[in-house]
Structure formats: structure tokens, C-alpha cells
Amino acid sequence: MYQEIIDKMFLDKYEDRPPDGYFHPSSVSGCDRQAVYEVSGTDRTDLPDVRNIRIMGTGTDMHERIQDRLVQAHPGTLIEVKVEWEQIRGSVDAIVPIGDGYPYNYGHPEDDVDVLMPVYELQEFKSGGNWKMREAQKGPDPQHVKQARIYYAGLDHMGFLMDGIRIVYFGREDWQVIEHEVEPWTDEQVVTFLASLDNMLLHVEEWSLPDRLPLDSKGNRFWLCRYCNFRSRCWDLDGDNTRG
Ligand code: SF4
Fold it and tell me: Does residue 70 have its Cβ closer than 6 Å to ligand 1?
């Protein structure tokens, strides 16, 4: 009885995201092939099971509680900020104003008062169990770093004044907090990233596929594949670089 009640609690809140023709930072930062499947609107072969939905839902609940408190503690904080840039769609957990703001004059001679434009730090939340928190002690996950850098570049392009990235890990068992500050991309690195998107779009046009993620050191599929909505298609139906 309770399992049913709890499953329904999370299933009712679960928001499915079918492929929609956009690049989503969570996939672009993890696997090019998954991103190509998404951006070309490929049907998914594997949907998350109810256990994964419970895990993801628990993370979402934690993040929402933290966002509520963050807004109270730091007025001017913006949460769930939509990023739309270069066929990328997604939303950032929080951007938090830092410092006094950037003095800005609109250039009208009669306007002798500069405006203090807010300068924001991007904050990306991640939650996990004990294993993930132990890994987070060693440093931020490269996928999380790339995801945050994509968001940062997008917000910068959209006109937000940005300064810094903070990736914050929250422990699901004990609410332990681990924070990592990371550098945003340089302009050259942003150009390289955009070129990688063009390369993925070429795959979409040619109906071909980038390489799969490499096998891990034990010869098993990379762990991200276990949660991928295209895993059966990717490994069983499609070829190394061709659609089945
Ligand atoms: S199954 Fe793995 S390699 Fe294939 S698209 Fe998904 S994440 Fe990428």
C-alpha cells in the first residue's frame, strides 16, 4: 500500500521531457550521441523506471526547499532562470547577486544617476547519496562543470552580468554540503563548444550518429548509459555511427 502511495506521489509530479528539437545542457554535457537523438526528435526506447523517478523526485524536492530558503536569505536571487541560446534550452537552479552591482549609465546627459546593475554568480545544485558525495569531495563531476559552463555562456549571451560559477552538492542522507567554484569558459572555449554543436547538427542533417560513450576501465558501458532514454536503440538497434 505505502509503496503505491509513494510511487504515485512522485509520478504525479514527474514531468516527462520528450525529445523536442533542442539541445539540453544535461545531455550536451554528457553524451553527444544522446544530444543528437534528442535534437533530431528520435523516439525514446527506454523511459525511466519508477525507482529512478523517485530518486529524481527526491532531488527535485530538496532543490526546491533550498531555492525557497536561498531567495529568503539573499533577496534579488533568481531561481529556475530559463536559458535559451543557440538551440539550447534549459533552466539554471539559481543566480545569486554578488557585490554592490555594476554602475551603469544609460548615456542620457540629463540622467546623472548611474544604475547599479546586479552582477550574478551562477549556482547549480546537485544532490546524491553517500557515494556521490564521496566523489564530490574529490572535485566536481566534469559533466556538471560542463553543464554549468554552458548555462553561464548562455546567460552571458542573453545580457546577464555574470561573475563566477558555484556547483553545490547536497547529501540526500544527511544534508551535507560540498561547494566547488569553477571558472567559466573563455571566449575561445565558447567558440569551440559552439563548433561541437554544429558538428552534432551535421549528424542530424546526415541522419548519422556520433560515437557512443567509451566503455569504462572494466569494459562495461559508461554509467550514464544506464539512465539513458535511448540505451536500447543506441546499443542494440543502431550501428556505431549509423541509424538502424
Ligand atoms: S546509451 Fe550511452 S552512449 Fe548511447 S546515447 Fe545513451 S548515453 Fe550515449
Answer: no
CB 232 within 8 A of CB 45: yes
Please say whether the structural domain 2-237 has been given the CATH code 3.90.320.10.
yes
pLDDT digits (tens, 9 = 90+) for 168-223: 999 999 999 999 999 999 999 999 999 999 999 999 999 999 999 999 999 999 98
- Give the number of residues written for the chain: 244
224 lines ligand 1 (CB under 6 A): yes
Atom of ligand 1 nearest to the CA of 230: 6
Ligand 1 pocket test, candidate residues 221, 227, 234, 242, most atoms within 8 A of CB: 234
Q: What is the DSSP string of 122-167?
A: EEEEEEE-HHHHHHHHH---HHHHHHHHHHHHHHHHHT-EEEEEEE
List, in sequence order, every residue forming a beta bridge with 119; answer none if it has no partner. Answer: 98, 161
- Shortest-distance atom of ligand 1 to CA 221: 2
* pLDDT tens-digit map of 55-104: 999 999 999 999 999 999 999 999 999 999 989 999 999 999 998 888 77
pTM, full prediction: 0.91
